[in-house]
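User: Could you check the structure of this?
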Amino acid sequence: MSLYGALFSGVSGLTAQSSAMGAISDNITNVSTIGYKGTTTNFQTLVTKQTSSTFYSAGGVQSKPRQQTDVQGLLQSSTSQTDISMSGAGFFVVNQAPVPGISDPYLYTRAGSFIQDDQGFLKNAQGYYVQGWPTDPAGTVIPANTNLTVPNQNVISSDYLESINLNRVGGTAAATNTVAIGANLPSSDVAGTSHKTDVQFFDSLGNANNLSINYTKSTTGNQWNVGIAPPPGTAVSTLYDNSGNVYSSSGLVEFTAIPAAGSTIKIGFGSATATTYTFVNGAPTGNQIQVDGGKTLSQVVAALVAKVQSADQAFAVQSNRIEVKPGVSTAIQFNEGGVGEIYVDLSATLNSTGGAVTNQTGSFTVKQTDNAYSNYTMLRFDPANLPANGDTISIRGTTYTFQSAEPASDGDTVITTSTFGAMMADLENSIEANDSVLAVTGNRVKQFDLDNNGTNDTLYIETVANVTDNIDTSGMTAASRPKDGDLTAYASTTIPVATASGIVFSADGLPSTFNVKDLELLGFANGAQNMNNATNEGKRITFDFGTVGQANGLTQFGAEFTPNFITQNGSKFGTFSGVTIGTDGLVTALFDNGETRKIFKIPVATFTNPNQMSSQTGNVWTATQNSGDYTLRNAGSGAAGQIIQSALEASTVDIGAEFTSMIVVQRAYSASTKIISTADQMLQELMNVKR
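Assistant: Sure, the predicted structure tokens are below.
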């Protein structure tokens, strides 16, 4: 029995050492395989239960191969930007199908030699496609299934993961949203002197546009007003201060052809009260503009401007509230100075075939300038709510009292309310009679019929240079208090009469106040997004004119206008040129215009016992009961290793150690054969006894 036991023990040794030799041979042949994990062979005894204390029954040996999946391989540099490696624990999630279906299992690998296939998917040399979480441009993970709204980063599923495809990245463009300007504005300039800075910016479609920033010296020392007309191809430009108040707003209508007879344009305070102007053949009457008789487009545009100025008193307050655009005789420019918003409707401004004859289409609104920056303070009274007897209004320190029995227009400070028209006339005459500053010209105080209904209901008071005054309406009953020109109630009963400038300098030539911060652009004719900070629209352009008290932007020295620098972000359309992959697995697309866009995030799958995963052909593994379930993690977070771009993980095989082990195995195998041959000889001797 023991001789046969010895024989079989030797056979088990041959089997075990053969297994070890097989592991060594696999290790040596995979010494250059990316991400390969070496297999070591351990041995355990096979013990036969001993039935006698004086007799030994041989058992044998068993081999126990173990792949050392958790051993880190050496990272080797690569020239490919899509080669990635894992530094630390974890695996890439892969699939053999570019678009995994229900029957396509997800596997795990550390072989990161990925290249683009003919469809743009990242596939490694073994034919497996790396999976990633899609992200939005900000790098936030989103579901791969567009029918879902909430991502789940703990589940491996085609609803949340997809094969990374670089062909579908496409091009990109970035709209400008910051502009920094440095220049010196001459301190010796007289009031009214203007300088400009031309700035190129990009819209959301990557088109290059130009805008001009105009600086005009104020009548108040060390102060400059800032203006930006709508760039060609836009409808409205609006400047805002640091608090979001409108500093200035302008509109633009660029005619490309003469409108057809019968077509119309609406211009006014709002859609409900806007005046309709009609283009006609023959002699015009009323609010009509002639388009035949050999009229040129420039003549038609000029006639329209003149008609609006004569027909609508809201445009008589401010001489350039509507004007032919300087230098462009076929365009109309609207400049809102505080009277009230300007509504323009071009939906019926068409040619004979129904096509648009302006670059701008539809309707737009030029916003009302905030009273702090307005050249005019509008007091719009309600004819249905006359001030009560004894009500008072204070203008520049002079108090005017309303009385129904007061004679009209006698120049004192008592204002008649016998009729609404008499009250308006008496108030204008009394202010001019009792205020020498406002009486300097006949236009600093004037009454107007802003809604063109035949009743002068609005009194405007023009800002006086170097003078800041208030209008106090607290002495009036609430219903009779005047409103702004567009019938918006003033926020306070104290209404300032002053115009703050866009930029104010200290006596040392350094800026002390910036009242201009953001630029809003609306109505791009090329279809680009509005720049208005609205949802699903572009951002406003934020200006950086420097730091208050520092000479790092705009300054006011000397006698020359000197532009120093202009910098802005944004870019034209650019095509995909490559990727970067961060240590956190974030895949960022690079474009030839310098822009970047985050597109995917590569997850890392970790296991409790990776050495018990089942190895499959192609240098991949599957989870088993002994390995535990996967856990998806962000690279570099918790137990997950970091992802290294342009590097590959080398095989963990040490060829020197393998050759040494091979010698040991060879000798052990030979020794096992000697056991068999010796046991055979002993059996032969036993057989010879019978002879």
